[in-house]
Design a protein that fits this description.
Elements (H helix, E strand, L loop, with lengths): L2 H15 L6 H12 L4 H7 L9 H34 L17 H15 L3 E2 L5 E2 L1 H6 L23 E2 L5 H9 L4 E10 L11 E11 L4 H16 L5 E8 L2 E10 L16 E10 L1 H6 L8 E8 H9 L6 H4 L2 H4 L3
Bound molecules: phenylalanine.
The site of phenylalanine has 11 residues, from strand 8 and strand 9.
Length: 337
């Protein structure tokens, strides 16, 4: 077989194998076998010396021709496998879409949002304070005596540096009055912490919403009107309100307020223990001692303050029997809202 025939055979082999190669590795394997250093072409080039003189020009031309053929077949093959690889990664627009689950707001968050919406319509603005409080804002400025039981380490979480996890949202009253001049009309939702033993109605971590209104000539009647309006908006027009005398260090007079039982509409049931009323929280007229602590003139200004337990309202609204459901994050529970 002449060298020319052998070169033709090599070109033939390239034409047969390169279009069949399925990926870059296969192309490379063929390249190595044909023109790699140990491949066919270098071996044939060594035979050039043995070719008779008169055949040399034709053989040389054939050699170049075959080299070009192999190069161009290699290029084609590489381009082809590169395109195929790209298409394999491409998005298949004919596939059905993947459905994404839409998240829901936690019932606590929803109740806060709804309460805030109602009070904003009544002219209140949202105020905020830190979860990590100091004794001054959580107790002293709120006129709480040094020996008051709520300060006990059995009831309050203290940090080694003397700060504490706020036990109520009432310190936001102080922080607001320190920074703003009346008229003040704020609501402050937030987390609170107490060392309670968890049960169906107690959690060490719970939420309150604080309300504070400071202006001239503010009375208990104003407070009652605002809370009644809130009760109507939140639970319906047939819900009434009543005040009972109570004590808080930072209000005088202090009251606890009840709404008509939203379950039995006042007839008496197991939720209201037959009374027809539900305890909501505490409120009262801001004690002049508190005004003094924040540098406001108690002769010029008066105000009311109220608190509300968010969990209590969420549980009433959704008929939830145990506060712990709200914190277990069981998706089967949360999906219902
Ligand atoms: N901070 C009180 C509590 O946690 C509630 C309250 C708020 C009472 C505002 C009076 C005025 O029980």
């Amino acid at each position: 077989m002449s060298l020319i025939d052998k070169l033709d055979a090599l070109a033939e082999k390239a034409r047969a194998e390169l279009p069949q190669a399925q990926n870059a590795e296969a192309v490379e394997a063929v390249r190595i076998s044909l023109i790699g250093r140990q491949g066919m072409l270098p071996a044939l080039m060594k035979e050039m010396g043995k070719v008779p003189k008169e055949d040399k020009p034709a053989t040389g031309r054939k050699l170049n021709e075959v080299k070009n053929v192999v190069e161009s077949l290699l290029n084609d093959a590489l381009k082809r496998v590169a395109t195929a690889a790209k298409q394999a990664d491409a998005i298949d627009v004919t596939l059905p879409g993947r459905q994404r689950k839409i998240g829901l707001k936690h019932p606590i968050t929803r109740v806060i949002d709804d309460i805030v919406t109602i009070f904003r319509r009544l002219g209140f603005v949202v105020a905020d304070g830190p979860d990590l409080e100091d004794e001054f804002h959580n107790f002293d400025a709120l006129n709480t005596p040094k020996d008051h039981p709520s300060r006990d380490i059995k009831d309050t979480f203290y940090l080694p540096d003397g700060r504490l996890l706020r036990t109520q949202t009432s310190p936001v009253q102080i922080r607001t009055m320190e920074n703003e001049k009346p008229p003040i009309r704020i609501i402050a939702p937030g987390r609170c912490f107490r060392r309670d033993t968890p049960d169906a109605t107690h959690s060490m971590n719970f939420h309150q919403i604080e309300g504070l209104y400071v202006d001239k000539n503010v009375s208990l009647a104003d407070l009652k009107a605002v809370l009644l309006e809130f009760a109507h908006e939140m639970f319906g027009k047939d819900v009434g309100i009543r005040f009972r005398p109570h004590f808080f260090p930072f209000t005088e007079p202090s009251i606890e307020y009840d709404f008509t039982c939203v379950m039995c509409k006042g007839k008496g049931c197991s939720v209201c223990k037959g009374s027809g009323w539900l305890e909501i929280s505490g409120a009262g007229i801001v004690d002049p001692a508190v005004f003094k602590n924040v540098g406001l003139d108690a002769d010029e200004y008066s105000g009311y303050a109220f608190g509300m337990g968010i969990e209590r309202i969420a549980m009433l609204r959704h008929k939830i029997g145990d506060i712990r459901y709200l914190y277990e994050n069981d998706i089967r529970f949360l999906e219902q809202f």
